Amino acid sequence: MENKSFNINWEIEVTATSPKEAAKLALEIQRDPSSEAVNFDVEELATGEKTEVDLSDETKGSDICYGCGKAQKYHTMQDIDEDDFAIYCEKCHSKETSKRWGETTEALTGIRQKLEALEEILNTNSSREDWTDADVSMEMDYMYGKVNKIKKDLESL
Questions:
Q1: How many domains does the chain fold into?
Q2: How confident is the model over 32-82, as pLDDT tens digits?
Q3: Which site in 32, 81, 107, 122 is 20 to 30 Å from 157, CA atoms measured?
Q4: pTM of the prediction?
Q5: Same domain, 1 and 55
Q6: 78 assigned to some structural domain
Q7: Is 54 found in the same domain as 5?
């Protein structure tokens, strides 16, 4: 079979700050082996005959990153938890994990501060000799309320 000359057009819409950046983004997508960029307009130069070629049947499934939208080979992305179906590429997985750990760390810091405040109250009031049984009962109710609030905070993590 004789080789023929063809003109191949591939079209994609990208968002970028400059024409050069847009071209670089398109090239990156085009070179990605798991890219969904599989539709081409093909023109045979000798005859001018134009054909739309869709190669999607020849590509395997892909994972799509919930963070950046990047596609890559199926079953190569990671999820963060089992609560949702979001999967992330390596770069976005690191960012999302750091973000979630940051939120958890902030929550734990708040709980630690509340426990320290509770401990301070208990230490201050444990040595009081002027309290009646009613005072102690009221203070214990207050402490139980604080402990229950902390438990609820922990459950929300």
A1: 2
A2: 766 777 788 999 999 999 999 887 766 556 778 888 888 877 777 777 766
A3: 122
A4: 0.35
A5: yes
A6: no
A7: yes
Q: Which of 157, 125, 123, 154 is closest to 139 using CA atoms?
A: 125
Could you tell me the residue range of the domain that residue 143 belongs to? 94-155
Q: What is the largest CA-CA distance in the chain?
A: 106
C-alpha 138/C-alpha 134 separation (Å) is 6
Alpha carbon distances (Å) from 104 to 53, 73, 94, 99, 153: 49, 31, 15, 9, 11
Listed in order, strand segments (DSSP E) in 5-137 are 6-9, 39-44, 50-54, 62-64, 71-73, 78-79, 87-88
Are 50 and 101 part of one and the same domain? no
Residue 114: which H helix or E strand, with range? helix 90-126
In a domain? residue 85 = no
In a domain, 106, yes or no: yes
Among residues 6, 24, 7, the alpha carbon closest in space to that of 15 is found at 24
